Amino acid sequence: MLKNHTSEHFPFLGISDSNRLSDFRCRTTFYTALTRLLMVDLGEDEDEFENFMLPLTVSFETVLQIFSNNFKQEDVKRMLIGLARDLRGIAFALNTKTSYTMLFDWMYPTYLPLLQKAIEQWYGEPACTTPILKLMAELMQNRSQRLNFDVSSPNGILLFREASKMICTYGNQILSLGSLSKDQIYPMKLKGISICYSALKSALCGNYVSFGVFKLYGDNHFDNVLQAFVKMLLSVSHSDLLQYRKLSQSYYPLLECLTQDHMSFITNLEPPVLLYVLTSISEGLTALDTVVSSSCCTSLDYIVTYLFKHIAKEGKKPLRCREATQAGQRLLHFMQQNPDVLQQMMSVLMNTIVFEDCRNQWSVSRPLLGLILLHGKRFSELRAGLIRSQPLPKQEALAQCFRSLMEGVEQNLSVKNRDRFTQNLSVFRRDVAEALRSDSSADLCSLDMMS
C-alpha cells in the first residue's frame, strides 16, 4: 500500500466525474492512516519518504505543466482538490520535526505557489478553496513542536510568508463577491474566513516565527496579513460572529493571541475598528460557549492590563520606550472618548457573577479586577444600585459581601493581588447567592445592571 497508492490501485483517488467532490474528504482519512503506517519505520530515511510521495509528485508535476495550457480546467481543479485533501492527511500524521521538515522541503518552493494560484482562480468555489485553506491551516499547526526548525533554518518565516500570501489573496478576493444571501454567506464566505483565522492563530501562537524580524528587515507580509484580518472582520456582522460556532471559535482565540503579544497592532487600529473589536468582546462575554466567553475575558484582561500599566507609568515619562508610551496614549485617548465601553463590560461581568451560572469564574475574575481599579466610581455606582434594589433586611448583608470582596486587595495588578481577588470573588459569589436565596422572588429582575 505504501508503494501503490494511485487511482489504479484505489479508484476513489481518481478525478473522474464518477467521484463526487464531497467524497474527496475521505482521501484525507486514507492518507492519514497511510502516513501513520509510513511513520512506523521512516526515521530519517528521506529516500523512503520521496518514494512514498512519488504518486503525488507525478500529479503535481502534471498540474504544473498543464495549469496554463488549454486543458480542461475542471480536471485541473479536481486534481488540486484531491491533492490538497491528500496532503492535509499526510501533514496531520507527521508529528515529528524530521518528518514534517521532509514534507515542507517537498512542497516548498515548487508546489505551494500552485495552491496560491488555485485560490486566485477559484476563490468563489468553496469546494476548491476550503480544502486548500484547511491544508494551509494544518501546515501552520505546531503540534508536538514539529515546526521548531533548526536555528540555521528560515523555514518558519518562509512558511508564514506563504500563509500570509494565501490569506491576503483569499481575503481580498472573497470581499469582491459583494453581499450574499443568508443561505450562501457561511459556505461562500464565513467558512473560509474562519479557516484563515484558525491558520493565523496557529502561526501567532506557534512560537516558530519571530514577528519582529519582519519590521526589522522591511518585510510587509506580517502587516499585510493583519490588514487582511481587519478587512475580513469588518465584512462580518457581530451577530454572525456569534451565530456561526466555527467562526466564533476561530476569531476569539485569534483575538486573544493578538491582545497578548501584539498590542501595538491593537492600539494602532482606527477608532471605528477598535470599537468594533471591543464590541465583539463585550457581546462574546455572555456567550454560552465557554471557549468564546473565556477568550473574551482573557482578551479583555490583556487590554485592561496594558491600559492600567500605561496609566501607572504615565507620570514617570521615561525617555526610553517612547513608542510603547505613544501606543498606550492612543489607547487611553480612545477610552477617554468612549468611556462607556469598558464600564459596560464591567457591568456585564458583575451581572454574570451575581445572577448567572458562571462556569468560568476564574476567567471572569481576571479582567474584573483591572476594570474595578480603572473605574472605581462606576463600580461604586453598580454596588450601590444592587444594594438599593434589595429589601432593607438584605441590604446590610449585601454591603458586607462587597466589603469582603475588596478586603486585602491592593491597587495593582500583580499576580499575587489578582489571586487574592479571585479567591475573594469566589467567596463573594457564594455569600451573595445565600443572601439573596431566602426571598422566593428576590426581585432579581428589578436590577438591570446592563443599563
UniProtKB/TrEMBL annotation:
Keywords on this record?
Cytoplasm, Nucleus, Protein transport, Transport
Q: Which SUPFAM superfamilies match?
A: ARM repeat
Q: Name one GO biological process term.
A: protein export from nucleus
A cellular component term, taken from the record's GO annotations:
nuclear pore
A GO MF term:
nuclear export signal receptor activity
* Localization terms from the record: Cytoplasm; Nucleus
Tagged with keyword Nucleus = yes
Similarity field: Belongs to the exportin family.
This protein is called RAN binding protein 17
What is the phylogenetic placement of the source species in the record?
Answer: Eukaryota, Metazoa, Chordata, Craniata, Vertebrata
